[in-house]
Design brief:
The protein is α/β, with parallel strands linked by helices and 548 residues long. The protein is built from 23 helices and 9 strands. The strands form 3 sheets. It has a 5-stranded parallel β-sheet with strand order 4-2-1-5-6, with helices on both faces. The chain has a two-stranded parallel sheet with strand order 3-9. A hairpin with a 2-residue loop joins strand 7 and strand 8. The longest helix is centred in the middle third of the chain and has 28 residues.
């Protein structure tokens, strides 16, 4: 049967549903039954590939996952209209593609799932409004004056927004905790969610008697000889990468198209989750903050990309972890610390950051507490710096589109904050470089947690650190041309002088923060000549930042 003949036999499309590239939840209630009058629309659009500069692997990862999801829907009998980058009828915007399809099919209903990102939420709300107005105008123009009174009845377009059915928490779990514009701490929200869900709880008390084992999750990894292998199987994405390049989409970083390993299907994501639970979680907690040269993945789960495009859900991830390790955690303190630390990242930080973003946008994206204006150093784009920790963390990010949370927070983020880099430029880099970076989860972690640009809405103090922390948690300092012990002088580590330089120049802003009382007392005890030398070397580092 020809495609044209097959198309004629299908019923008319009455409803069009849009699926975004990070809404790949096959268990969504939308897909519980097949309805031939419903058309699902997915689109590879330049509006999405070009709104920021993306890492090559992020482009490959999202597009390959979208294509796999469309095939899955079709295999289950759903009607799908999929726009590829190079399709001649691709208008490369939701306004164009959806409007034309609605008109082409005479569809009376447009539905979408609530976007996680503010810009897309506003764009789709505007699209829905325009559809209602334009459809009514179009129908009115085609009807006789005598029929004009019935235009509203015949031309109405139903528009409806649905939940993504992905997150564990709801606005009512967070919003009542906001008092006079001040958001709750993550710890308060996390405990509330533990109580609500019963996760790692015995009646109303936490398993093990403590809510949080973060203080036990900070050990360096001395022996990296027995690390588990990457949980994903390699596949070849050169054909897709060639399409991306042919369409002129700009990107950066290594595409690794011939040996691409990030997941494109739910099955692959579940395999990675199971691998983590079997081979990584037991050691995850104690070593989750460790950094090792040449070992980018360590004991981390590597499921954040799959979670953020919704191939798997936070609920099932936590449930699987508790089923696997919950009983042993009650008897083994080390396992409990690992299990709790992992759950805290998902039930705590991930859910919390979503609400911070939801409550704070669009203003949150403009916060700049320190009025930082320095450009991002060019070596964030190529890793060519003599500071070994930054060279390794940046180069790893460019190669894999990945770095774990401490590399992001305490290496690349820490330096940017100490140097006074404009948070707009920091956000731009983080949003583009990491495969799991979508604005709702990126900007709150970057502008809030990493840069303290929100003035303490998220973090209770700036996450500033000198070389001593980096040396304690990594082996980066061993191969560095800078001396980790020196605060100034020849080959002194820039982190040391910039740490004190940052505290000194921002004292009027930070002096009342009780968590910084000790470092300020230490600074005050320094000899005046020592202070002068530290600040002078810090000035020199900032003036010569491109040559560090």
């Amino acid at each position: 049967m020809s495609e044209r003949a097959e198309h004629r036999e299908k019923p008319a499309v009455n409803r069009i549903r849009l699926i975004l590239g990070d809404q790949l939840n096959i268990h969504h209630s939308w897909f519980s039954r097949v309805d031939d009058s419903t058309l699902y629309v997915m689109a590879e659009q330049r509006s999405e590939t070009d709104y920021t500069l993306h890492h090559a692997q992020k482009l490959i990862g999202v597009l390959s996952a979208m294509r796999a999801f469309a095939r899955e829907l079709e295999s289950r009998g759903h009607r799908v209209r999929y726009f590829r980058l190079g399709d001649t009828d691709n208008g490369h915007s939701f306004q164009d593609n959806i409007s034309r399809l609605m008109q082409m099919h005479g569809a009376r209903s447009f539905e979408w799932q609530q976007p996680d990102e503010y810009r897309l939420e506003k764009e789709l709300e505007s699209l829905a409004e325009s559809l209602t107005v334009s459809q009514a105008d179009s129908m009115a123009d085609s009807m006789a004056d005598s029929m004009a009174d019935s235009v509203a009845d015949h031309s109405s377009v139903n528009t409806r927004k649905f939940s993504t059915e992905h997150f564990i928490s709801a606005p009512e779990d967070f919003d009542p905790m906001v008092k006079d514009g001040k958001i709750p701490t993550m710890e308060r929200f996390y405990r509330r969610m533990r109580k609500k869900t019963g996760i790692l709880m015995e009646d109303d008390q936490p398993v093990g008697g403590k809510w949080n084992y973060d203080s036990e999750n900070r050990s360096p990894l001395k022996d990296a000889s027995d690390l588990p292998s990457m949980p994903y199987s390699l596949r070849n994405e050169e054909e897709l990468w060639e399409e991306i390049c042919q369409e002129g989409v700009e990107s950066f970083g290594s595409p690794k198209a011939a040996e691409f390993y990030w997941p494109e299907t739910r099955t692959q994501a579940q395999k990675a989750l199971n691998d983590f639970l079997a081979n990584r979680l037991e050691n995850f907690g104690i070593y989750q903050d460790a950094m090792v040269d040449g070992e980018p993945f360590l004991y981390h789960s590597l499921i954040s990309f799959a979670l953020n495009i919704k191939l798997i859900s936070p609920g099932e991830v936590i449930e699987s972890a508790v089923q696997k390790w919950g009983r042993k955690a009650r008897d083994d303190h080390r396992v409990l610390a690992s299990l709790e630390g992992f759950i805290r990242q998902i039930l705590g930080w991930r859910e919390y950051m979503r609400h911070v973003y939801r409550n704070g946008m669009p203003g949150y994206g403009k916060l700049n507490h320190f009025n930082a204006r320095r450009p991002l150093p060019s070596w964030y784009w190529d890793g060519k710096t003599s500071m070994n920790c930054l060279s390794k963390a940046v180069s790893q990010s460019l190669e894999h589109g990945y770095a774990h949370h401490i590399q992001r927070l305490m290496i690349t983020g820490n330096f940017a904050m100490l140097a006074g880099v404009d948070p707009d430029q920091v956000d731009f880099w983080y949003l583009g470089v990491y495969i799991d970076a979508f604005q709702w989860v990126e900007i709150t972690n970057t502008r809030g947690m990493s840069q303290y640009a929100d003035g303490g809405k998220v973090a209770t103090k700036p996450y500033a650190a000198s070389a001593s922390y980096i040396n304690r948690m990594s082996d980066y300092c061993k191969g560095c041309s800078y001396n980790k012990k020196l605060r100034h002088g020849e080959n002194a580590c820039p982190f040391n002088s910039l740490y004190w330089h940052f505290l000194h120049r921002n004292r009027s802003i930070l002096a009342d923060n009780h968590r910084l009382a000790m470092p300020y007392r230490t600074w005050d005890r320094f000899d005046p000549e020592e202070k002068k030398a530290i600040l002078k070397y810090g000035d020199d580092c900032l003036k010569n930042i491109e040559r560090l």
